[in-house]
Design goal:
Layout lengths: L32 H15 L15 E6 L5 H12 L3 E5 L2 H4 L8 H8 L5 E6 L4 H8 L4 E6 L5 H15 L6 E5 L6 H10 L6 E5 L8 H9 L3 E5 L2 H7 L2 E4 L11 H7 L7 H6 L5 E3 L20 H20 L3
Parallel strand pairs: 1-2, 1-3, 3-4, 5-6, 5-8, 6-7, 8-9
Protein name: aspartate carbamoyltransferase
Enzyme class: transferase
Keywords: Allosteric enzyme, Pyrimidine biosynthesis, Transferase
């Protein structure tokens, strides 16, 4: 009897030439490593697309609606820029909560059913957690979650992980400090879900007690074998980490409890003293906008990656629009 060894390759969950497997982008948990690698590969291609090149017209004839029930600058403009850079067109509403039929009492489901008749894809930001999932269950066209209250912000998490890979050169074996408003920060929640896809990752949570990371994320990380630790010492955490991911304390999430907001604000600030203890290869990231949680004198340091991070959002969103509308 003759034995032979067969080489078995991991079969990716996507194939070139076929429509991208995701119908919507709703939450970070929906991505696996193969899909993340695919999105990042296309994002790198998007970095090289120039004005008036053939690649800049791949979404010509497509129309995107941005339906934003909460204020946004970076996310809305980067999606609109992404669509236009690929030859598509945009319908936009900047404050749908006040200046759409929602102000008259129209349900989200009715709004989605109406808007999908005008466009090919909807990018939505909403003030309620779970709103994007409701929209996706209603719509027959792709829905992209651009942030749903304190729930998730999956495209921000994608650009964050893409930035880490570009800046640090790897995603396995990294140490990440999540700092600031971890209870209400949809960006850090989504990022934690994505980081759990990688091997030997450790996450440090640094926040005031009133905005500590919620148990659902901690339980999820534990279930995935991801090591995490809570700390009150930003300097110590910064000295250990490859990434210090700072967030602002979000006043809009506190309602009338301004006393709790003032208690949390200003407790953890990234300044030059923090930079001094950070490793040379490490980076500071922030989803923006910032207030005073990163001092402006940090901006000149090459480890300040937050504006490069924002630019990466354009490439990730270009990639998602291409993959969802025309596939590979």
């Amino acid at each position: 009897m003759q034995c032979c060894a067969l080489e078995i390759e991991d079969v990716p969950t996507f194939t070139r030439g076929k429509k991208f497997q995701l119908d919507d982008v709703i939450e970070a948990q929906q991505f696996d490593r193969d899909t993340l690698s695919a999105i990042f590969e296309v994002a790198r291609e998007m970095e090289n697309i120039e004005k008036k090149s053939p690649g800049s017209q791949i979404l010509k004839g497509y129309l995107m609606a941005t339906l934003f029930y909460e204020p946004s600058t970076r996310t809305r403009l980067s999606f609109e820029s992404a669509m236009k850079r690929l030859g598509g067109e945009v319908l936009t509403t900047e404050n749908a909560r006040e200046f759409s039929s929602a102000a008259k009492g129209e349900t989200l489901e009715d709004t989605i059913r109406t808007v999908e008749g005008y466009t090919d894809i909807i990018v939505m930001r909403h003030f309620e957690s779970g709103a994007a999932k409701r929209a996706a269950a209603t719509a027959g066209i792709p829905i992209i979650n651009a942030g749903d209250g304190p729930g998730q912000h999956p495209t921000q998490a994608l650009l964050d992980v893409y930035t880490v890979e570009r800046e640090i050169g790897k995603l396995d074996g990294i140490r990440v400090g999540l700092v600031g408003d971890l209870a209400n920060g949809r960006t850090v929640r989504s990022l934690a879900y994505l980081l759990a896809k990688y091997q030997d990752v450790k996450i440090y949570f640094v926040s005031p007690d009133v905005v500590k990371m919620k148990d659902d994320i901690k339980d999820y990380l534990t279930s995935r074998g991801v090591e995490w630790e809570e700390s009150a010492d930003l300097m110590e955490v910064a000295s250990k980490c490859d990434v210090v991911y700072q967030t602002r304390i979000q006043r809009e999430r506190f309602g009338e409890r301004i006393d709790l907001y003032e208690e949390a604000r200003g407790k953890y600030i990234v300044d030059k003293d923090v930079l001094k203890v950070m490793q040379k290869h490490a980076v500071v990231m922030h989803p923006l906008p910032r207030l005073d949680e990163i001092t402006v004198d940090v901006d000149a340091d090459p480890r300040a990656a937050y504006f490069r991070q924002a630019k990466n959002g354009l490439y990730i969103r270009m990639a998602l629009l291409k993959l969802l509308l025309v596939g590979w």
